[in-house]
Amino acid sequence: MDVGSVRVGLSRSDVSGLLATPLETVQRVDGDDSHYGRIAQIVTELAVCEVIVGLPRSLSGAEGAAAGLARAYSVEVARRVAPVPVRLVDERLSTVTAHQQLRQAGVKGRKRRPVVDQAAAVVILQSALDSERASGRPPGTPVVLEADPDGPGPGHGEALT
């Protein structure tokens, strides 16, 4: 998942976890949370076993405002798709790489905008898949939901929307 303030690019892997492919771009509209519902619907329909969210960092590894937005977004996604695990992975240069790949594929400037988020999501997921295959460990860091003091706990009895 490549999280932006206007769009969220989605990709998926094949069942063997070898190849990431573009899936969909979900539009975000201020004051409308339906994009979370669409993501939860996709997770359910595709029987997703894990959600990977890109965490933007600078080249030095520092996190800025965009990383804070991605972290907050990943927590809400985790709440809505529980008990499916959600992980944050470094997405340094994913959008730059996606633009380069689309340019090399002959996709012209204006036609890139609708698909660049999906292409960035592919770069993020492919990197995570390759990392897991090489190390034998899940990539990135898990998104941990805080226990609700008034409820049974994260991931228990929550409905997908």
UniProtKB/TrEMBL annotation:
Any one Pfam family match given in the protein's UniProt record, by short name:
RuvX
| Principal EC category | hydrolase
Q: Where is this region: Disordered?
A: 131-161
Top-rank taxon of the source lineage equals Bacteria
- Please cite one Gene Ontology biological process associated with this protein: rRNA 5'-end processing
Show the GO MF annotations: hydrolase activity, acting on ester bonds; nuclease activity
Q: What Enzyme Commission number(s) appear in the record? A: 3.1.-.-
Looking up InterPro entries in the UniProt record yields: RNaseH-like_sf, YqgF, YqgF/RNaseH-like_dom, YqgF/RNaseH-like_dom_sf
Q: Which UniProt keywords apply?
A: Cytoplasm, Hydrolase, Nuclease, Ribosome biogenesis
An example GO CC term for this entry is:
cytosol
Q: Where in the cell is it found?
A: Cytoplasm
Give the principal location in a single coarse category: cytoplasm
Residue ranges of domain YqgF/RNase H-like in the record: 2-98
The function of this protein is: Could be a nuclease involved in processing of the 5'-end of pre-16S rRNA.
- Family matches, as PANTHER family: POLYNUCLEOTIDYL TRANSFERASE, RIBONUCLEASE H-LIKE SUPERFAMILY PROTEIN
Q: Which family does it belong to?
A: Belongs to the YqgF HJR family.
Q: What HAMAP family does its record include? A: Nuclease_YqgF
Protein name (record): Putative pre-16S rRNA nuclease
